[in-house]
């Protein structure tokens, strides 16, 4: 009888805990606002910017923006007040957010819009998430032309593509933490650049024509700048035509670990941007990489390596200063 009683109590407790969990899941679902964008008029809006404008300001609940297949040619802006936005594309290759501005284009006053102004999508709202979306700048090889500029903190991208040439992805915010998982990023010169702390996890970094994969401008006080983990550095450029990176600012930090480096990677690996003083301040390091471009015997003398023990400490939360992008 005592055993039966204990089993009954355990069963009742499990049911009670399940009901509590169900209650909170239901409450969370009820708090989420869902907006659908469809070019054919079958959704709530036909443009992505209209959907962004409909997001409540300073809302703690997640707003999901479902974007149907289509090419949405819009110059987009997610304001700082639009937090907790989660964009989901219907199909990675067919849900495309794009524009065609470039740095030398003139504004209405005749002034060049510059690199920052060329972005197709400006992301300022914290806790932004995107899935299965292609972000592009369609200006072509005309100099700096940004696809996405991210100033927001805690920005996450899962299974996304970033298409462009020079300066494709601008990790803009000094205090911004960014996470990219299973993403494809392509370009030519400095096509991943900026001052944010960003972890690229299991991504394809695709170099076109020749140039530099990265141009970090990490603030001096930051422990991490760019970390590439389990990534693939490849492309259609000639062998040896791509450097892993060069420092846009003196304290640039780039770490590449357990990744595949194809033959397009230059044997020297890194460039000092024409300033020998950068060699004593940058932190460009590699560990555990494979592929034709991974040999470090001919790397520049001022690049660094890390030990196996140091590599073990490179967990996601440590790199992103306490933020777990999977929660």
Summarize the structure.
The chain has helices spanning 2-31, 48-53, 114-117, 308-312, 316-319, and strands spanning 33-37, 63-67, 70-73, 76-78, 85-89, 95-99, 121-123, 129-131, 134-137, 148-150, 155-158, 161-163, 169-171, 177-181, 184-187, 192-194, 197-201, 204-207, 211-212, 214-216, 226-229, 232-235, 242-243, 253-257, 260-261, 283-287, 304-305. It is α/β, with parallel strands linked by helices.
Task: Explain what the structure shows.
Strand 1 (33-37), helix 2 (48-53) and strand 2 (63-67) form a beta-alpha-beta unit. The chain has an 11-stranded parallel sheet with strand order 1-2-5-8-11-14-17-21-24-26-27. It has an 8-stranded parallel sheet with strand order 3-6-9-12-15-18-22-25, with no helix packed on it. A 6-stranded parallel sheet has the order 4-7-10-13-16-20. The radius of gyration is 22 Å and the shape is globular. The chain has helices spanning 2-31, 48-53, 114-117, 308-312, 316-319; strands spanning 33-37, 63-67, 70-73, 76-78, 85-89, 95-99, 121-123, 129-131, 134-137, 148-150, 155-158, 161-163, 169-171, 177-181, 184-187, 192-194, 197-201, 204-207, 211-212, 214-216, 226-229, 232-235, 242-243, 253-257, 260-261, 283-287, 304-305. The model is unreliable at 1-7 and 22-30 (pLDDT under 50). It is built from 5 helices and 27 strands.
